[in-house]
C-alpha cells in the first residue's frame, strides 16, 4: 500500500462503460445518454428497483426529524425492517436514546454498537475492486454542485495545507493552485487509471477501505481531509472516520460533501433509507460515534427548482479535529 508518484501523462478520455453501473439521481446516466426523470420518483424507490432478492423492502418508509432544543444525534440506525426514526438525543456520554414512532419504545445504545447489523448492507455485496475496475471519467454531480464543493474547500482549507483526498478519482474539485496554494496533496481511490489522470495529486494509492479502513500514514500527517460524493459507499464509515481523526493534525478540518446521487447497487442501506434532508444528521452520527472531532456544522447549497427541474443539491458537513 505504499504511495506511488502520480503520472501526469494520462488525460481523461472515454466514458462510462455500459453495464458497469448506473448512477441514480435527478439525472440518470444510461451509457452515453442522459435523460431527466419527469415523474420525480424518489431516489430510494429507484435504488431498490430490481433488488427484491436482497431482501430490501420496496415500500418507502416515512421519516422525519424532531427539531427540538435538545442535542440530537439524528439517525443512528435501523433495527431490521423499516423503522421510522423521530429523533435521537444524547442522554449520557457514549449513549443515545432512540425514540421510534412505530413502537414508541426507547432503547439505549452503547458507543460502538449504535448501528444495526444490517445498516450497511448493500444490494451488491461483491468486492468494490470489481465494481470500480473500469475507469469512469465523468463528473458525478453537475457544474453547480462542483462549484459548491470547490467553494467549500476554499472557505475551510488553509493556504499551504497538506491535503488527503479520500475516495478520489480523475478530478479533485480543488480550487486552482493560484487561488489556493497547497502543500502536499495525496489522493486515494479504487481505480489507478483515474488517480493517475488527476493532475492535482502529488501522490496516490489504491485501497479498498471497506475491506481495510486503516490508512497507511503516520499520526498527524494532514491539515485537511476531503470526502466528496463518496461517503454513501462506506460500509465501515466509523472506522474510516477514526482513521481520519488519527491522521489529521490538531485543528485540522474534514469536509464531507454529498448530493442525492449514488450508485444504487453500492450505496449502503442506511443511506438509501434516510431522506436527503436528514443525511447531514446521519453523517453527524458517524462523527459522534467515531470521536475525535468537535461539533460539526452543515452547509447546504440547494438550487431552486423550476418547471424544468433544478440543479443538484449539495451538503457539506464540516468537522474539525479536536
UniProtKB/TrEMBL annotation:
Pfam families: Methyltransf_11 (PF08241). Residues 190-256 form the Methyltransferase type domain. Transmembrane segments: none annotated. One of its GO terms (molecular function) is S-adenosylmethionine-dependent methyltransferase activity. Residues 1-16 have a biased composition (Polar residues). Residues 1-41 are annotated as: Disordered. InterPro entries: Methyltransf_11, SAM-dependent_MTases_sf. CDD domains: AdoMet_MTases. This is Methyltransferase type 11 domain-containing protein. It comes from uncultured Thermomicrobiales bacterium.
Amino acid at each position: 500500500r505504499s504511495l506511488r508518484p502520480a503520472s501526469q501523462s494520462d488525460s481523461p478520455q472515454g466514458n462510462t462503460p455500459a453495464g458497469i453501473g448506473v448512477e441514480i439521481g435527478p439525472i440518470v446516466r444510461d451509457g452515453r445518454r442522459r435523460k431527466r426523470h419527469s415523474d420525480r420518483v424518489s431516489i430510494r424507490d429507484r435504488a431498490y428497483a430490481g433488488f427484491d432478492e436482497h431482501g430490501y423492502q420496496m415500500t418507502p418508509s416515512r421519516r422525519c426529524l424532531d427539531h427540538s432544543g435538545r442535542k440530537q444525534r439524528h439517525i443512528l440506525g435501523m433495527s431490521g425492517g423499516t423503522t421510522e426514526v423521530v429523533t435521537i438525543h444524547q442522554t449520557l456520554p457514549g449513549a443515545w436514546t432512540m425514540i421510534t414512532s412505530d413502537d414508541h419504545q426507547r432503547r439505549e445504545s452503547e458507543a460502538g454498537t449504535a448501528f444495526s447489523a444490517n445498516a450497511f448492507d448493500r444490494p451488491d455485496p461483491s468486492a468494490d475492486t470489481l465494481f470500480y475496475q473500469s475507469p469512469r471519467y465523468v463528473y458525478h454531480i453537475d457544474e453547480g454542485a462542483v462549484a459548491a464543493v470547490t467553494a467549500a474547500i476554499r472557505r475551510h482549507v488553509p493556504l499551504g495545507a497538506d491535503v488527503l483526498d479520500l475516495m478520489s478519482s480523475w478530478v479533485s474539485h480543488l480550487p486552482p493552485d493560484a487561488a489556493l496554494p497547497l502543500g502536499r496533496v495525496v489522493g486515494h481511490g479504487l481505480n489507478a487509471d483515474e488517480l493517475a489522470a488527476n493532475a492535482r495529486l502529488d501522490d496516490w494509492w489504491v485501497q479498498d477501505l471497506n475491506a481495510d479502513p486503516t490508512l497507511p500514514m503516520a499520526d498527524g500527517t494532514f491539515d485537511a481531509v476531503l470526502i466528496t460524493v463518496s461517503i454513501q459507499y462506506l460500509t465501515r464509515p466509523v472506522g474510516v472516520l477514526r482513521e481520519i481523526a488519527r491522521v489529521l493534525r490538531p485543528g485540522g478540518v474534514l469536509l464531507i460533501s454529498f448530493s442525492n446521487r449514488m450508485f444504487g447497487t453500492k450505496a449502503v442501506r442506511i443511506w438509501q433509507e434516510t431522506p436527503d434532508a436528514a443525511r447531514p444528521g446521519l453523517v453527524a452520527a458517524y462523527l459522534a460515534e467515531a470521536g475525535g472531532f468537535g461539533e460539526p456544522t452543515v452547509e447546504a447549497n440547494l438550487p431552486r427548482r423550476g418547471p424544468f427541474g433544478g440543479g443538484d443539491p449539495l451538503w457539506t458537513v464540516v468537522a474539525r479535529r479536536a
